[in-house]
Amino acid sequence: MESNVLILNRFDLTFREGLYLDIELCKLLRTNCYLVTTAITKGDTVILKLNEEEIIKDLSRVDIKSLKALKIDIASGLNVIKTLLNNSAKFFIKALTVNPNLTSKDLIKEIINYLSRGCIHRELDIFVLNSEDVKLLDISDVNSEELHKLLKFLSNVLGMKNIVLLNYVRNSVFTHILYSSDTSLELHTPTKIPKDLIITYMMLKLISDEELGTVFNDAVNLAEKSLKFAVRCCDDLIPEVYIQEVVDGERYRVIKELSKAVRVLEENSQLVIDLIPNVQLNIAYALPKHLTSGPEDVAAIPGRIIKVGNSIKTIATPDFNTSKHLARALIKVMEFNPTIRAAANIRYDDLILKTINELGFTVSFYDRSQEPPEVKAVEGATIPWGVNEAVKRLGYVPDVIYHKGDYGKEAMILILGKDPNDVVNKILRLGSTLRRNGIKG
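Structure (tokenized):
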């Protein structure tokens, strides 16, 4: 059953905070939301702040009794808060925050005094603030050792069990702390995360009876990823909350493009069959670099592409995490050139290599006999090392990287391209030229 929530927040024209994120999260989590605009801002600049009478008038149009949760910036004003919290018994959860640009220290003190005396707080009520918001509370600078004491102090003053402090910079990373009933959970991110994303996500998830610590961890993880996949709009980066949808869409495209490429290879078996090495042929395609963290984000053909009589066949459809060798190569290649996301392995032969050069492909190589012992001792380290050596040798990512093998290791040629179609076209050009010249790889 969908829940109804009320959100009072500013509309921020940068879309990094404010009602935009609230709306997107409510859509993502399939929650009905009633929105009341309290101000219009652009980052730290206040363009318009609505007065309490206007906000209360907007609230009169909302059936407060039907609401399950409330999110409010306490800078909305004391009378607004009183209007809402007189109905607090109807809210399963209240999520409170404060915007330092929309209010004064005196008003905050007055509101906090009311919150500590004038209303009943429920088990899951949370108060979320950024490290810079602490200044509004008229508390002197806090060092890292005192953070937990500060949160305990706020919990006691407000009479709320759950306090979240975000974006406290410590040792060049951003620290985020959930204080709940005298225990703390501390998380870290390399960048500052959006406060509104955290508080709204937590509120919407807690409605569904999810565990508080898990929800906090998931919220921080979502916030970090939303910035990693952010969309640039002029000078601003807009957080992308539909991360899983983005990933799923890219995974679908990768599988689709790889499947088309395999069909083309099978349809042109006569041009490919003599290029298949003893370990068989495979072709791989990685997700875009910002979505790729390991072999699990690279798709290839399970069981590889094999010879069957005078043709080539696959025994399975493309899938992710099925070719660690090609995956490791691509992940390393993408460090140098993120646009090169596809690769296929073909067998090494001097005549094949000569034809590759004659076709004008850019070529580099690495010598496995020169592999350092400390690299050889690590499972899976050889290929990244080799790719690194080949790219350094040429100065950029080539069309082809090869090695002449080592004891127990077959010599191999790696064909690289922007996508599977690019790789297949190179393979077919090579196969066609070899066939035309009467050369059987």
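Residues 364 and 394 are 6 Å apart (CA to CA). The first strand starts at residue 4 and ends at 12.
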